[in-house]
Amino acid sequence: MAVATVAALLAALGGALWLAARRFLGPSVQRLHGSEHSSLMHGKTVLITGLVVKHLDLASLRSVRAFCQEMLQEEPRLDVLINNAGIFQCPYMKTEDGFEMQFGVNHLGHFLLTNLLLGLLKSSAPSRIVVVSSKLYKYGDINFEDLNSEQSYNKSFCYSRSKLANILFTRELARRLEGTNVTVNVLHPGIVRTNLGRHIHIPLLVKPLFNLVSWAFFKTPLEGAQTSIYLASSPEVEGVSGKYFGDCKEEELLPKAMDESVARKLWDISEVMVGILK
Fold first, then answer.
1. Which of 68, 81, 140, 254 is 20 to 30 Å from 12 at the Cα level?
2. 20-56: per-residue pLDDT in tens?
3. How far is CA 233 from CA 10, 79, 120, 271, in A?
4. Active site residues
5. CATH code where residue 175 lies
């Protein structure tokens, strides 16, 4: 879905756009000067230029810091930041820094990334931050006694927890950004045909039926990217901040996703976990 978002934004807005990737280029960097890529957008093929591909592994705080340092050295401004990466229902494993993988990648990696780029976003204002969450946040909660899932691990619940953390982070960040002309909103993209579910085991006999259902009912990557594109570029949401969207429309949140005290506590603990010095 990230590539679809990038292609559509380049086609719509132009300019330089950084695509952060964990592995398809490894540690290498490629700037596509003057090259052309075709992308399907609104039923027609368009040509895009200006894509910059950089290495970023959100399971490594060292990698996040290196990426941000590189961006701050190379780019004078940042108009839009889209936090789109994620890992879904993986077996229990830890990040390079010892965090449960889903919480570490989906929340902490993006938390550090955003904080390190806030200065550039503020100096580039008006600017926007877009956070990709999931409707599955409804099934999670924030257990401050076991954020690292050391006591027990349920891969579905831990994914939902990380997505709830995305929303709480967005709302607390919106509060902190009041008056800066930097906005932040969060969205759920719907069910999209990507490799996000690669850790889910589907019995061999069921796979043909699952593939048929996914092609019939799941969104394409470009369709799934529409709300991200909307929040990143539409004048309709200029000045809107701290809201939750689906299918390019604002949606209501459950009370637990609007708990300001939990959001502030999560922020403070996240700062300690990623090593942000006040």
1. 68
2. 888 754 333 344 334 444 443 333 334 445 778 889 9
3. 11, 10, 18, 29
4. 159
5. 3.40.50.720
